[in-house]
Amino acid sequence: MVHRLALVPLKALASLPVDGADHTLAGRYRLQDRIGSGAMGIVWRATDELLSRTVAVKQLLLPPGMDAEEAEEATLRAMREGRIAARLHHPNAITVFDVVQSDGVPWLVMEYLPSQSLAALVHERGPLEPREVAKIGYQVAAALAAAHEAGIVHRDIKPGNVLISSSGTVKITDFGISRATGDATLTRTGMLSGTPAYLAPEVADGAEPGMPSDVFSLGSTLYAAVEGVPPFGLNENTFALLRAVASGEVRKPERAGELEELLACLLTRDPKARPTAAEALPMLEAIAGGSRPKIVAVPNWTSPQALEEKTLRRRRAGVIAVAVAFAAVVGALVTSLLVLNQRQVATAGPPGETRTITFGPGPGVSGTTGPTGTSSPGSRVSTLPGGAVVPVPSGDDHVPPPPGAPSQPSQSHQPPPAPTTTPETPRNRLIKDAVRQFYDLLPGNTTAAYQRLAPATRPTLAAFQAQWADVESVKIQRGMRVVGDAVHLTLKIKSKGITAASAAYVVSAVVSGDQVQIGAIKQGGTGGEGP
């Protein structure tokens, strides 16, 4: 896997003066000065002499060592960039006006925005306040939602591609590695598209980038703006960084404040559990306005200490593997000795000792237990106080008690135990609280409720929202009973145009430490009890 670098071949710039002055493209775009560089090109400020306006033009740069086929592919990708980006017209996205060629090299003509990138702003000022980050994020999400609506995946959302003007207008730039739905795939096999520190885990793990991965990158960008570093930290070793991204272990934010719950939603490991860019808009708007929307998410945070411990565990893996192999050999030897010992003829113990001995069917084993009793191979005998040996038949046969012992009913006549509710414990209270919080979110906040579902049993977000589309209210009518990992309760559900009805449900809980997720939900059970 190759980390994309903006490597500038000298031949691409040989025909240009250092400052680009007096060089005109397509007879109308006169270059003035260089203003930045991106993944595949250098951006120049220029004047459109036909329309008398300032524009930005992006020159394609080919990494050294490309053969003719690879160079052609890169050129096609740049032309495709122009076609895709030109389809998007949004106040928070840089507009592409034209695509021209000069000396066989394509140039993109774009809207010029005097601005500073979010990356430069954070570098200059340090971590930003959560409300300011939410205002920036709202505009980025708005453009991203429009792009996704048009079938465009950006694939490289990061602070360097977020431009902020002096008036506070925010625009996304560099759709150079984006891909439109239905367009041909032009990225070479083995080429990494995107910046590793802001990739979604599934992309780092080899999956195709999509709209959910754009949302994860949006979360990574906002995380970096409020924390000062990307969610997976910084590492000059690209492969080590990709390994950290693929693990999905996000460092717990320390400065996110009211943004923390939303970041947990955007940065969740499961792509299906993330909100869409459009769904994130009202949450970002509320935070930017000073309120804290009700968002319940299962945090994906990992403490720095835990990450360090995991690194140490990985280093010890080789030693542990050797120890396990050695233990397996020793265990096999001990097991063999125990089997041999078990096949010895059992003898009665001293007076007062009670023990049960199992006879194995191996050769040379006698069923004789001594003058006080006999047994056949494979049966069990119990040595009672005083040294008496009593054969114990296998199966469910009733064994008469010895003289003087209290009588007990046989196992076959004992009534089955009645099902009982698991006693109230901290674990049970944790499960009840999780179920109560889940239904408190419904039907008004389906996105947040969806975050509470266990990945193994959850449907798609769209399907989940469709299930609750016509529901006006839901209420836990009676108390809840926890039986193992299942919660029995009664729900009163009111749907549009239908009288409210009550029904019993069983909700399974998936418990991991102090985290509880909602598993399968089925109608039936015995319902809730108590207040």
Automatic annotation (TrEMBL):
CDD domains given in the database record: STKc_PknB_like
EC nos: 2.7.11.1
PROSITE patterns noted in UniProt: PROTEIN_KINASE_ATP, PROTEIN_KINASE_DOM, PROTEIN_KINASE_ST
Positions with a binding annotation for ATP: 58
Region (Disordered): 347-428
Protein name in the entry: non-specific serine/threonine protein kinase
Taxonomic superkingdom: Bacteria
Residues in Protein kinase domain copies: 29-287
Enzyme class: transferase
